[in-house]
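Section 5.1 Outputs to date
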Amino acid sequence: MWSEYSLEVVDAVARNGSFSAAAQELHRVPSAVSYTVRQLEEWLAVPLFVRRHRDVELTPAGVWFLKEGRSVIKKMQITRQQCQQIANGWRGQLAIAVDNIVRPERTRQMIVDFYRHFDDVELLVFQEVFNGVWDALSDGRVELAIGATQAIPV
């Protein structure tokens, strides 16, 4: 099984080019870093590194794993942050689509007013053109459309 820690270990080894340099960066002993990588490689059933006498190099599978692993780390950090925000009273987000016929000053003022009343909600604003606000609404990308034409596309 892999964890955020094991992904960070692989990332450190890849960036530093050796287990000992990664261990120094992570404030661990080299054997702990090597063991973590070996456990992960056994779980994946593929080698992530080519081991040489004093350094290591990513295998093609390791390059791919590192790329994906970095995005997983980022997603884990975002998820942790959002959970903490919700636990501390952050209520989530509201996505709106604004048609380009709405003057930018009006949109800016709307955003300022929104945060004055709802500082615990993230406002996502998407600029749309023509019937884009209706598309965004029907696709579920937004919860609110501003500046939509009266003619609802079928």
